Structures are given as structure tokens and as C-alpha cells.
Amino acid sequence: MAAIESNPKINLHVRSNSFPTAPHTFVSQFEEHLNRLKSSDSASSSSSSLSHKLSGLQDLQDSSDKFLQLSTTQQVLAQKWVDELLDGSLKLLDICTTAKDCLVQSKESVYEVRSAIRRRGAEAAIITVGSANYLASRKNVKKAIRNALRDIKGVRNSLTVSSSAKENDMLSMLKEAESVTVSTLESLLYFISEPKGRSKQSRWSAISKLMQPTRVACDCQEIVTNEFDEVDSALKSLICQKKHASADNLQGDLERLEMCIEDLEIGVEGLSRKLVRNRVSLLNIFNN
Questions:
Q1: Residue 241 Ramachandran class (φ > 0 left, ψ -120 to 50 alpha, else beta)
Q2: Is residue 71 classed as helix, strand or coil in its secondary structure?
Q3: Which residues have CB under 8 Å from 53's CB, separation 6+?
Q4: pLDDT tens, N- to C-terminus, the chain (288 residues)
């Protein structure tokens, strides 16, 4: 992210005095997970790529917690920086909670529509009511996410490492871990709330075609599927009666969205537990 300076791959054998002369296994693991996430494709926003990144964040938080248990880490952070890291951990938990709440609300709405459709003898109006309720719920979810995205702008400012802290390798790495976590959660929130993000990709694709005409066929195939977009479009068409949507086809879209939400829920819930544990470790450093 632009808010924090990304260091090149760190040579653990030549570091400032904030690290021991010999690299510790936990330090190496932390750096390995961090660099892997930093080098991942930030432009990819499919549900599978987000699930993969959430899993990677859990590994990062695991190694971060082990990193925080090192006596050298605790000695350095306890001097000055732990309070700043505690503030960042609380903000990450707030964003994570918003993502969890939005996923839960979305899954409940999907279940309601699927239940209405399964009642084959029900009047079409019942399905329409269920669809309208789903879209109303989506509106509430998008509003909550817009508020969270505004808060993220403030969080990014706090991720900037001050000039007095730039020589502190430990703090820089932990702040970079915060930055990567915020970036992934932000991508998740956009994925849930703005499935029409494909339009941005289309604009880039148009530019790419002008620059590299020979790749037109390939670029046209690089459209990322968004399960929220598919269901939103199908239900809006059903309500507006623009076309007759097969209940089986709609049920399939809803099933895929429900599976997508469940996968993302697992990732966010796991990440939330790791963030809570790391916050406890920071509080222990602060209190000792």
C-alpha cells in the first residue's frame, strides 16, 4: 500500500541493533509470510483469491504472535511503540467485525430467498417479496461498508512509519503486517459491496488493447466472476420483470453465493481469532 514504505527483502544477517545478530526462526517465518502476501496479486478480487489471502493472513498473524513472544521483540517494543501497535490492532478488529457482520447478514438474506424459491407451490409474489427483502438487506450492507471504507482511510494514515521509527526494523515489519491486513480486508469489503468493479477492469482492458493489440482475445477472458453481482442482477431482473428467470438457474446462483459467503466467513472468523490473540500478546507486553 502507498501509506507505508515497503522495504526490499530484508537480509536478516545484516540488520540494525533492533534485531539480534543471528536471525531467529520466528523472525524468518514472519518475514517469509509477510513478503509472500506483499508479492501476491493485489488486483485479483475473486472469491477464491480472497479466501486464499485470508488464509495467508492467518499464517501471517500466527508468525506475528510467535514474533511477539521473543524477548528481544518485547524489550524493543516495550520501550516506546507497543501503544501505537495496540491502537492499530483495535482498528483491524473493528474492520474485521464489520466484514463478519456483513457476511452474516448477506447469508441470512440468501437463505430467505432460497427458502421462498424452494416452495414451488408458492405464489410468484412471495419470491418477489423475498427478492425485495434481499436487495433491501444489500442496501444496508453497502451502507455499513461505505462507513467502514471511510474509516480505513484514517487507518492508512496511522500506518505511516514516522521518521523516528524507520530504523526500528521490528516496528516496520509489524506495521507492514498491519498494512497488508488492511489492504486485504478493504478488497473484501469492495468485493461484497461493489460487485460492479468489473467496469474498472473493462477500462483497463481497453487501454491494454490499445497498447498490446495481440492480446485482445486473452484480455477478453480475464473477467473476474463476482457471486454477489450474479445474484444482484438476477433478482433485479426478476423484480422488474425484464425477463423470466428460471427458478433452477436462480437457485444455482444463490447456492454459489452462499458457498462463497461461507468460505469468506471461515477466513474472516479465523483471522479475527488470530487478531484477538495478537492483541492479547501486545497487552501483555504493555502491562509488563
A1: left
A2: helix
A3: 37, 40, 184, 187
A4: 444 444 444 343 334 445 444 356 888 889 999 998 888 755 557 899 999 999 999 999 999 999 999 888 888 887 678 888 999 999 999 999 999 999 999 999 999 888 887 775 555 666 677 788 899 999 999 999 999 999 898 888 777 655 455 557 788 889 899 999 999 999 999 999 986 654 444 333 333 333 344 444 444 444 567 999 999 888 887 777 655 556 667 888 999 999 999 999 999 999 999 999 999 999 999 888
In angstroms, the CA 251 to CA 288 distance is 55
Q: Which three cell numbers stand for residue 147?
A: 462507513
Spatial separation of the C-alpha atoms in residues 179 and 183, rounded to whole Å = 6
| Lookup: cell for 248 | 433452477
Instruction: List the grid coordinates of 15.
Output: 540488520
Cβ(226)–Cβ(198) below 8 Å:
yes
Distance separating alpha carbons of residues 233 and 257, to the nearest angstrom: 13
Residues 103 and 264: beta-carbon distance below 8 Å = yes
Predicted structure pTM score: 0.80
Angle at 149 between CA 143 and CA 151, to 5 degrees: 110
Cell (9 digits) for 199: 467496469
